[in-house]
Design goal:
- The chain is built from 7 helices and 4 strands, in the order αααααββαββα.
- With 187 residues, the protein is mainly α.
- The protein has a domain of 129 residues: Jann2411-like fold.
- Strands 1-2 form a two-stranded antiparallel sheet.
- Helix 1 crosses helix 4, helix 1 crosses helix 6 and helix 4 packs parallel to helix 6.
Length: 187
Amino acid sequence: MDFDAYARTAVDLVNARLTDLPELKAFLGTAHGWMRDEATERDVAAFRRAQRRLREVFELGTSGRDTEAVAELNALLEQFPVQPRISGHDARDWHMHVTSRGSSVSAEYLAGAVWGLAVWLCEYGSARFGICADERCGNVYLDTSSNNCRRFCSERCATRSHVAAHRARKRAAVGEPGDAPALTPVP
């Protein structure tokens, strides 16, 4: 099983915009084709509730409140239990899934997302949970850097933030119009 891939599904969910069924179906896309086709309004509500709770796990983890993050993950694991099964499309493609086929779309997706995030926390610690440092963003991420130094969810946010900081420093160095005292003409 690729637990990192399951953990990334939790990140994808937290960062997704899911206001209605068409957005949920677009989120599930082709990667989860059968889920997209079977998703219902009831799944939208379940995804949105889990989305808020998973964001809380990231907030707790990034603030060093590991015990609370673990308690929330344990509660989510109880709500979306893992029921492993072997799946495959032919005899050469056997692989593991974390829930039984017959579960609702939300139960299957969320069991994998919660399980993956729980394994990630146990393997790497919550110090590897992140919330983008670009104040305009707020997306969450898993820090896979070698020295645990990641601060942004993407290169785009990092660049945007660094450019804004550079421009702010330049403005401060030369003084913004209206910041400098008015000069009085010398007679």
